[in-house]
Amino acid sequence: MSASQTSDVPTLLVKIFGKDRPGITAGLFDTLAAYSVDVVDIEQVVTRGRIVLCALVTRPASGGEGELRATVHSWADSLKLQAEILSGTGDNRPRGSGRSHVTVLGNPLTAESTAAIASRITATGGNIDRIFRLAKYPVTAVEFAVSGVETGALRTELATSASHIGVDVAVVSAGLHRRAQRLVVMDVDSTLIQDEVIELFAAHAGCEAEVAEVTERAMRGELDFEQSLHARVKLLAGLDASVVDKVRSEVRLTPGARTLIRTLKQLGYQVGVVSGGFTQVTDDLQERLGLDFASANTLEIVDGRLTGRVTGEIVDRAGKARLLRRFAAEAGVPLAQTVAIGDGANDLDMLNAAGLGVAFNAKPVVREAAHTAVNVPFLDAVLFLLGITREEVEAAGLT
Fold this sequence. Notes:
Blueprint: H1 3-6, E1 10-19, H2 24-33, E2 39-47, E3 50-58, H3 65-78, E4 82-89, E5 99-106, H4 111-123, E6 127-135, E7 140-147, H5 151-165, E8 168-173, E9 183-186, H6 188-192, H7 197-205, H8 208-219, H9 225-234, H10 243-250, H11 257-266, E10 270-278, H12 279-289, E11 293-302, E12 305-311, H13 317-331, E13 338-342, H14 348-353, E14 356-360, H15 364-369, E15 372-374, H16 382-385, H17 390-395
C-alpha cells in the first residue's frame, strides 16, 4: 500500500518495549496476522538488552480493534513486556525537503554536547528523524538523519559551533550518491603518517630543528610553501642516497591508517595520496598499502648523493587541488564524490575542492576553513563520516 493510499486510512501504532529476547518480532506479527492488518511502517531498536519495537498497521476491519488490543496486551504480558497502542490516521508525516546525515564524533560523547548539537539542528529549522550509533570504539560516533533544512546551511551552523561544543561534526547530503563509488585522497605528512618526512631526512643531516621550525611556519600558512620547500631541501645537500631506505624504515603510519585504506578498498573506493613530501617515500607507501594514486615532489639525486634540489612539477597548495581533480578524472568519479583529508594550510585548496574536505588533527586555520574536522588520533574515524559502522569494519575482519 503506497503512502498516498494510507494517508486517510485509520491506523494503529503498536509499541512494545521491555527485555529483549529471540522471537519478539515474530511473535508480535504472528499476533497481528490474525486480524489481517497491513504493515505500514516498522521501527525496532535494541539498547543494552532492552527492545523498543514499533509497528504501524492498518486498523482491523469489522470492529476488531478492541479484540486486537486485548490480544496484543495479553501476548505482551505473557512475555513480561509492556505494550501501548495508539489510534490515528495515515502514515508518518512526510519528511521535510533538504535531507542530511549529521555524523558526530565524541571522545567521550557527553549528554551536554549531544543536547547542544540537537539544539543547533532545531535552531536551523531542521528536524531529527532518526539517530543511531555507528561506533563505540575508538570513539563514540552517532549519526542523525535530519530533514527540513538545506545541507549547506546546516553544515555552516554546526561547523562553527562544533569546536566550542567539544565534538567533531560532519554534514553531508542524503541520497544515493552516498553509496556510490568514491575517491579518497589524503595528505601524507601528519595525516597518513605520523611524521614530517623532510624532518626525518633532516635528522640524518643534523639540521632537524632548523627544518622543523620552517615546516611548522609553512603549515600554519605563514610562509609560501614552495619557497620554504626549496629552503629546507637545500639543507639536505650532500646526504648519501642510502638515507632514503633509512627514512622509509622510520616512517610510522597513523593509527587506523591501514584499517581505513583496507576498508575503503574492499568497498570498491579508490584511494590516493598527494604530498608536499617526496616520491622517494610516497612510492614506497603506494606499493605497501595498495594505493591507486600517488604524487609528490622528487628529491634530486646525482652520483649517489642528494643535491639539495627537487625536480619536476612542484606539489604545493594549488598542485594538490589540481591533482585531486586529475585523480578524479582518471578514476571516473565526479568531484562531488571525492573526499580529501589533510592537516596543513597547503591542503586547503584540495579540501575545499572535494565533495567532503576533512581536516585531520589540523592547524586552526585549516579546521576553520574545512567542511569538517576530526580531532581524534585515529585515521579510521573518517569511515564513520561516510556512514560505515564499526561493526561492519569488524565483521569484514579489517581491524
